Amino acid sequence: MTLSGLLSQCLALVLALVLAPLLTGWVNQWRAWLQNRSGPGLLQPYRMLHKLFNKESVLAESASPFFRAAPYIIFGCMTLACAIIPMLSTDLPLSIAADAIALVGLFAVARVFLSLAAMDIGTSFGSLGARREMLVGFLAEPALLAVLFTASLIANSTALTTIVTSLAHREFAIYPSLAFAGIAFTFVSFAENARVPVDNPATHLELTMIHEALILEYSGRHLALIEWAASLKLFAYSCIGLAIFFPWGIAEAEAPLALIFAIPALVSKLAIGGFLLALIETLSAKMRIFRVPEFLASAFMLAVIGMLVHLLLGV
Amino acid sequence: MLSLLPIDGVLAVIAAWLSIGICGVFALRRFAFVSRVLFPAGGLVCLALALFALQALFQSPQVAVLPLGLPGLPFHLRLDALAAFFLLVIGGAGAGVSIFAAGYFRQGEGTPPGLLCLEYHVFLASMAMVVLADDAYAFMVAWETMALSSFFLVTANHKVPEIRDAGFLYLLVAHVGAIAILLCFGVLQANTGDYTFANMRAQSLTPFWASAAFLLALFGFGAKAGIFPLHVWLPEAHPAAPSPVSALMSGVMLKTAVYGMVRVSFDLLHLQLWWWGALLLAVGLATALFGVVFATVQSDMKRLLAYSSIENIGLLFAAIGLAVIFNAYGMRALSALALTACLFHVASHALFKSLLFVGTGMVLHATGQRNLGRLGGLVRFMPWVAWLVLIGVLASSGLPPLSGFASEWLLLQTFLFTPGLPHPFLNMVIPVLAAAVALIAALAGYAMVKFFGVVFLGQPREETLREAHDAGWLERIGMLWLAAGCVVLGLLPTQFIVLIDRVTIDLLGWGLGRQVAQTGWLILAPFSVERASFSPLLFFGGVLFCSVLAFLLVRAIYHGHMRRAPPWDCGFAWQTARMQDTAEGFGQPIRQIFEPLLRLERHLPTAADREPRYRVVVGDHSWFRLYLPIAHGVEFLARQVGRLQRGRISIYLLYSFLTLLFMLFLVR
Amino acid sequence: MNALISQLVNLFAAVMLILAFAMLSQRRVITLIHLFAMQGLAVVGATTVVAYVTHQHHLYYSALLTLVLKVFLIPFLLHRVIDRLNVKWDIETLFNIPTQMIVGIGLVIFAFNVSLPIARFSETISRGTLGIALACLLLSFLMMITRAKAVPQVVGFLAMENALFFAATSATYGMPMVVELGIALDVLVGILIMGVFMFQIREQFESLDIRHLEKLKED
């Protein structure tokens, strides 16, 4: 473990923790602007976190210790996920802990704990949300894996740093297989981050909500941690997408100084990505919950076709 | 000091089990003696077996001949690395289940405790003998003993007609399978008349006969393992048995079929053809998908686990299939990886499935309910069981850093890195199948969340559940042992792979051990760190560190006020526990998506119903399309034959007379 | 240079395949026509690249012809047709989309295995494209089978023609100009006839659902 590796690791982690709520704020702000509203301001998520951390936590009478432990575990999972994704540099000492498959496993752990915590109280909303979350998860997870498999097959490795390095030094300008994978990944990240075609983060209407139904019983510090973890998840997903499909500007092990340029590169990529996310959200309508499996199954199939195209064309 | 060879040790263990069983017969009704002395003793003997097996893994194969059975036809036994590995699994999982069983069995349930003790230990001994056997005769005797003893265990509660039916179905399928295995050995010995495995290894069959032997083995062992479409007995028989027995059957007995499959295809057959592997792969994945879809829609907790076993068996067969494909093309490194993934999953499934089954046993005892729709909220009344079962649930969902994930990770690696197969079609299809494995794993997570969430979380759906009591200390020890196994296997996979290494070197001439050992004990990297690496300890440490740090920071900054209040009822003040999602409700999305796979019978209430009832029954197409027609055909034939029966003695004499004439005509 | 060219052709091939799958799973008639126009554009791109590499001038003309015909004229005609028939916002009920896609994946694998021996002999820019062209053809065929309305069927037919054209340019560097002109004319005449038919069907049955044609069968 080199010093520069340690430095880039810590930098990535701190950046993720600090920037994640900002990304959420950015997306929400753009959504507001695109919908002709003035919007709450970029810093709203921070104010929200601050408020929630200072509020009294109201716990349901029937809550078990499981319910109280879950937010910390979910937060821990998302933090680790941000630590192993090569967003700034491929020189990450922690990245040996988990490759692409384990990363998806990490998201799955968080999802399972969130769903189980929602079922713990025993209200009809909680179990409804848990069921829907698992429904989204069981299709989105293999789709995400298949997207990562396409990249793994190109790089002949499932280690995230190796994938990003080899994609950054690609001899081909455009991978046809990655085009499929990219579309699939977009679908998956909308579903996984509870964004508009699948779920609406700004609603509390029982017919449509998924994420909000899960966390209905949380309040105070627990809710703050979960909201923060949700921001981290969006951040992590954005970074995976950027690292695989637009890997330029990410520093490498031999060039620690590139880290200085990697930060503005990442921020500007995230800014553009966040704007596009808000744009797509504004342009599309929320689909019925019965359509969601079809949407996600299409994503899964697209990702599989991406793998297939790679295997067929050899690129 | 007397040096004790591992094979002698194993034989001593088998003898010990048999004598414990016989002790049980003499103490037929003395419940306390059987449960507090005999079962724990059996558990200790299991531990001894695991130790002997561990010792045997690092030694060269040992042979023994037991002068038992028919004159001139002794039992040949052989303890090689493969056998030792499976003995390790039997011992390791068996120890936990036996200790649990000591606390589990209650008085006055069907079969007397002493008899149950006999059947249980004979079952264990026969499983060990199956693995140890080195000739077809010993193998078949042990195999049949295993089937019979487990049949009696399944029908322990024989006063219930459903359990009797389940038992008979099990016996029937087991015997059809046994015939296929016998025929397979018949083909393997190639008309030499010598049924020892040593002779079979020496034969080189033509591809046609080798394929015949392979297909017979697939049918025979597949029937025992419950691969599609030979699975119908499994979801009936496993839930019918008492829980420790279900645990042994699902966790350990199914693995003897996997053992048989590996033994025949890698040891006894001298060649492998690629299409065998493709067949195994297709059958395995179909079984896995079928099993997991059915698991998600079950509303009986033991049936849910039984279907989950079908899924895992499917994955194991798929892994064997990959190993066969790679071996057929001489790619030994990848073949070793596939076989390692298979054997790792054998051990991991043995542990977590046993744990889950004994957990359901505890729930069953405490509440008397198997139906998920009448359970709920048990984490408050039986915390020990709930938290230990949670470990099993997480392992079974294939979540890192537990054992289920490690084996799944290895399996996915095998699927992904196949380029270089000389067969373009396989080259194209196998990596794509990795996506199918991912789908199966994610669905398994769905089923397990449903299982744990509905049984242990939420509000108790019945008032009687509030009186549920937690596990006793023997049961706790048994469950702790199994849960610890899941955790250790998950956190230290490299150490375990070094053990499996002996088996793959023995069978394939290649092992992952050296490569894995190179990167150190912390990191699991089957090829190189650049290509793929996973470090469960770092992973677990990372999550734990972040969570604990978050907890401490929040605690330091936060004022710590907390209030308990009734849950938010959304303005509807009459919330009851019955309004939670039921098992049927939780499985509904899957039922809708996979509707063509299921045979649904739905009764919807109309608006005018006074007492509206919603009922949905999920049936299995293969039962109605395959088994019932066969059964009807057999019945029809039997009726035709039945016409011979006239009831008059002179007609029977006429039959004998005609037979005699026919025989004389033949030998003329 | 050559590597980049073959990548470009591969990319256009992949785009065609994506569009073929998108058409297979698209419910709205109007989006279907947009997708068809985009597919035409991909064919134009591929043809231009091949023309540039091989210095075959007649391929430029055929690219131009495709552009005019398949990207502008035919989509325009189709738009007019659906406007007149008032089916612009029609939504078709489709059989389960993921199942269709699984069948589609099977077809892709099949197409590649079939075209593998042929592709081995070809020394053109990219060998994989023939397989993709064949796969697109089969997918369009599948789309025609699963559709119940007349306009999507016509689009499916035209997409099949696109795939054939793509196969011709990428695998054999195009057909002689005369043949291409003939085909273009055929397609144009074909679409006019189909347009007439659609109006006829509509007048006869008050609907464009071609399942009504079953009534014509003699009993």
Explain the overall architecture.
The complex is a heterotrimer of chains A (315), B (668) and C (219). Chain A is built from eleven helices and one strand. Chain A has 315 residues and is an all-alpha fold. Chain A has one domain (3-313). In chain A, helix 1 (3-34) packs parallel to helix 10. Chain A is globular. The model of chain A has no long low-confidence stretch (mean pLDDT 87). Among the domains of chain B are: 1-271, no CATH class; 620-668. Helices cover 69% and strands 4% of the residues of chain B. In chain B, strand 1 and strand 2 form a beta hairpin. The interface between A and B is large, with 80 and 83 residues. Strand 1 of chain A pairs parallel with strand 3 of chain B, so a sheet runs across the interface.
Q: What is the domain total for the residues of chain C?
A: 1
Shape of chain B: globular
Number of strands of chain B: 5
The number of helical runs of chain C is 7
Give the low-confidence spans of chain B.
none
Say how many strands of chain C there are: 0
**Which two chains form the greatest contact, residue counts included?**
A-B, 80 and 83 residues
Backbone structural class of chain B? mainly alpha
Shape of chain C: globular
User: Approximately what portion of the residues of chain C adopt beta-strand conformation?
Assistant: under 5%
**Strand portion of chain B:** under 5%
Instruction: Give, in order, the helices and strands of chain C.
Output: HHHHHHH
Cα-based radius of gyration of chain B, to the nearest Å: 26 Å
Share of helical residues of chain C: over 70%
Q: For the largest sheet of chain B, list the strands in their spatial order.
A: 1-2
The average pLDDT of chain B is 88
